[in-house]
Design a protein that fits this description.
A hairpin with a 6-residue loop joins strand 7 (111-118) and strand 8 (125-126). The protein starts with a helix and ends in a 7-residue tail after the last helix. The radius of gyration is 26 Å and the shape is globular. Strands 13, 14, 15, 16, 17, 18, 19 and 20 form an 8-stranded mixed sheet that branches. An 8-stranded mixed sheet has the order 29-30-32-31-33-34-35-36, with helices on both faces. It is of the alpha+beta class and 666 residues long. Helices cover 18% and strands 35% of the residues. It has a domain at 406-659: Rossmann fold, CATH 3.40.50. It is built from 12 helices and 36 strands. It is an enzyme of class 3 (hydrolase).
Length: 666
């Protein structure tokens, strides 16, 4: 009896502490960092288990990194356990075809290698020992082999030159390509596993898929490993899984990628721009016979930006994911179109669903779901999205402070185009109160603000701003993904003009709603959002303060230094030497004399997408003009903060900058 009373007392004490924590907690960057992310979901062949990856920031002492670990959940919701442990990340889990083993990649031995573990536990076994590690892998259909991608290693001569400090880099020469290898699961007599190389040569493999009979691998490849090449050209070939016999089956201008064999092995579905480069971005779905004949385009998807997930079991349909306005969803498309054919929506549109793992034979799927007010968790449901069951509780024990309400609003831009955006109110907002408004602009321009959890960690911590009395408008102007190809292409040769009107009319909408104080307006954005921020302050003085993150104010110097130059040229319509005026017209740096808004500059020191000098140009010009400015450089940082401690620095420094020019609740 005394033990029972003691147990109840402890339970009540813990409950009170948790309740008190929720009441007393507020939204800070430190609190948002507690929320974990989930990705890389794989459903077992029998549908009884789901394996997934949980990423957590590790910030003890001098450490500032993310650690990923693998979890396993039963699809009935009765079991959910952490599968891998330690300070080394493990990721990319995949069930063997018989469901008895899980293969995954881990850096336990410094480089990313493939490891193998029984589903029911035991010691993990490292099965690859590649010098440069492994890029990705896939089980063979019979489970006897694993195919993997590995990047070419340095030759002995190159290693010698490197050690002797004579390793001069020759730009765009001596590429190291990724190629396909296989490894046998069963060991040879010498206790080693046989590794066989299947592809080789001056091309770079970026994705592949086994045929159902395991005799062939289809793969997409491009001429070099540069990221810019992704938008220009990629072809599709076949290779025998027991030799290096190659057959090119899709060779046309533009990228052809993500090939997937049909269940009978006779057809291959893939994503394509349709025989021409589309650097702004487009992915339609095509099908071709295994022998390279009968190439045909399927129905156009709603956004024409599809990502193939898998074929239906009967080979009569394809499941694919796409952005639908402010949601990310799953669709099913018939292979044979008719007048009555329709693309079926298979998931919830009131939130964001990602990382789908589909078992079309059992008509089941597992996926990650989150919405504006709910952090991400793992779910299991029927293939039509009905009867979802939450399997994980990764974020359930984290205190949830009171949140600022977020709602979807719509308005009409200057030229009549309808625009959507997400408006987050300050916490404890009272109707009729006018508050500071921060206009936040997304990257891309083909990015999009979706219904993701607003309390999670990000460059701009939404609920942290709301906690400090600021309303946040996140618009999806023309150029955004999720609203169809025409909308995504609507800012072609128009950066800084139509999109400017879209976001400014959104600000006017929030003012007209009686929420925003027109005398306390701020603007901020990263990447393309930084670009439009720089352009905005050259066109209007309505904003009292601005923060440009990884912005590109000079398109002429940008196009010759970025690693995605064709993306920018695609939007401008021409090379800068053939149309210098359009690059100058759309560059904020040539309008710098018009700026009077105090503008903060934030940039990553190692940014290759938008080189560091872009932020530096704007900062120096503002400084020389006598405009209030400051520049913050994030060391070791590429195109966005990759270290959690640095990520937590960004929003507080923006808020501190804003507080100098608009009255906010610090």
């Amino acid at each position: 009896m005394k033990k029972s009373i003691l147990f109840v007392s402890i339970f009540l004490f813990v409950f009170v502490l948790q309740a008190q924590d929720t009441i007393n907690s507020t939204w800070t960057p430190e609190h948002s960092m507690k929320f974990k992310s989930i990705s890389e979901v794989d459903l077992s062949p029998d549908g009884k288990y789901v394996v997934y990856v949980v990423r957590t920031p590790f910030m003890e002492g001098e450490k500032s990194e993310y650690v990923s670990q693998i979890w396993v959940s039963s699809s009935d919701g009765k079991m959910d356990i952490q599968y891998t442990q330690g300070t080394s990340s493990s990721a990319s889990p995949a069930f063997s075809p018989d469901g008895q083993h899980i293969a995954f990649m881990s850096k336990r031995s410094d480089e990313n290698q493939i490891w193998l573990m029984r589903l029911m536990g035991g010691e993990a076994e490292q099965i690859t020992f590649e010098k440069n590690g492994v890029n990705s892998f896939q089980w063979s259909p019979d489970g006897k082999k694993i195919a993997f991608l590995k990047t070419d290693e340095l030759t002995e001569e190159e290693e010698k030159i490197k050690k002797e400090k004579r390793d001069v880099i020759e730009v765009d020469k001596n590429f190291k390509y990724a190629h396909i290898y296989t490894i046998n699961i069963e060991k040879e007599k010498d206790a080693k596993r046989k590794v066989q190389r299947l592809t080789g040569g001056d091309y770079h493999v970026n994705s592949f898929d086994w045929s159902p009979d395991g005799k062939t691998i289809v793969f997409s490849h491009k001429v070099n490993p540069k990221i810019n090449t992704d938008r220009i050209d990629a072809n599709i070939s076949l290779v025998a899984s027991d030799s290096s016999a190659l057959k090119l089956i899709v060779s046309q201008p533009g990228p052809d990628t993500n090939p997937k064999f049909s269940p009978d092995g006779q057809q291959i579905a893939f994503q394509s721009t349709g025989g021409r480069p589309e650097p702004i971005g487009m992915d339609d779905i095509y099908v071709i016979s295994k022998d390279g004949t009968g190439l045909r385009k399927l129905m156009q998807t709603p956004d024409r930006n599809a990502s193939i997930n898998c074929w239906g079991t009967d080979g009569k349909s394809i499941y694919f994911t796409e952005t639908l306005k402010t949601s990310q969803v799953l669709y099913n498309m018939p292979i044979e179109a008719s007048k009555t054919s329709e693309i079926a929506l298979m998931s919830n549109t009131n939130g964001v669903s990602t990382s789908y793992s589909i078992n079309p034979r059992k008509k089941e799927m597992a996926f990650v779901f989150q919405d504006l007010n709910t952090p991400p968790e793992l779910y299991f449901s029927e293939l039509n999205g009905k009867n979802p069951l939450k399997l994980s509780a990764i974020n359930s024990d984290i205190a949830m402070p009171k949140m600022g309400k977020t709602e979807l609003i719509k308005w009409v831009s200057k030229d009549g185009m309808e625009i959507e955006g997400l408006l987050t109110y300050p916490i404890n907002y009272k109707k009729g109160e006018k508050v500071p408004l921060a206009l936040q602009i997304h990257g891309g321009p083909a990015g999009v603000f979706t219904q993701m959890f607003t309390g999670g960690p990000s460059i701009y911590m939404t609920q942290y701003f709301a906690q400090n009395g600021i309303a946040i408008l996140r618009p999806n102007p023309r150029g955004s993904t999720g609203y169809g190809k025409e909308f995504r292409y609507a800012n072609f040769k128009d950066w800084g003009f139509g999109d400017y009107e879209d976001v400014m009319s959104g600000v006017d909408k929030v003012i007209d709603m009686g929420i925003a104080d027109e005398n306390r307006l701020a603007v901020m954005g990263w990447s393309y959002g930084g670009y439009l921020t720089s352009f905005i302050v050259t066109k209007t003085d309505r904003f009292k303060v601005a923060s440009m993150g990884a912005g590109l104010p000079n398109l002429i110097s940008m196009v010759t230094t970025t690693d995605v130059q064709d993306y920018l040229v695609g939007h401008m319509g021409n090379e800068f030497w053939d149309d210098y005026e359009i690059y100058e017209k759309h560059s904020a740096i040539y309008r710098i004399k018009n700026v009077s808004t105090p503008t903060q500059i934030i940039h990553g020191a190692n940014d290759l997408r938008v080189p560091f000098t872009q932020g530096q140009e704007f900062y120096v010009a503002l400084d020389r003009r006598g405009i209030d400015t400051e520049m913050l450089v994030l060391p070791r940082t590429p195109h966005g903060p990759s270290e959690p401690k640095l990520l937590m620095e960004v929003s507080p420094r923006i808020l501190k900058w804003f507080s100098r020019y608009i009255n906010i609740n610090l």
